[in-house]
C-alpha cells in the first residue's frame, strides 16, 4: 500500500470514528408556568361514559364495611406483641396453610 492510500485510510477511519460518536444533548433552559387546577371545567360525556362503570364499582367497594373489630387494633400496644401484629400473623397463616398443606402434606 503506498503512502497516499495509507493516509486516505487513516483519515477516513478517523472521520468515520468521529461521525459515529454520539453527542450528549445539553439542557439550555427550563421554562414553566403554574396552572391552577379547579373543577370549573365541564367533563366530556364520552370520557364520563368510559369512566362511569369503574367509578361506580370503586364507590361500591369503598363505601361498604370491610370488617368489624370489637376493640381497637393498635400497633403500639405492647412491646413485641400487638393486635395489629397478631392480625397480620393470622392473615398470613390463613393464606399460607393451604399452600403448605399442598406442598408437604402436613397441616
Describe the 3D structure:
- This protein is mainly α and 107 residues long.
- Helix content is 55%, strand content 0%.
- The longest helix has 22 residues, at 83-104.
- It is extended, with a radius of gyration of 34 Å.
- The model has no long low-confidence stretch (mean pLDDT 85).
Summarize the structure in short:
This protein has helices at residues 3-20, 45-63, 83-104. By secondary structure, it is mostly helical.
Instruction: Write down the Rg.
Output: 34 Å
Q: Got a strand count?
A: 0
Taking pLDDT < 50 over at least 5 consecutive residues as the criterion, the unreliable ranges are none
Helix and strand content put the structural class at mainly alpha
Task: Let me know the largest β-sheet.
Answer: none
Question: What is the fold's blueprint, element by element?
Answer:
Layout: H1 3-20, H2 45-63, H3 83-104
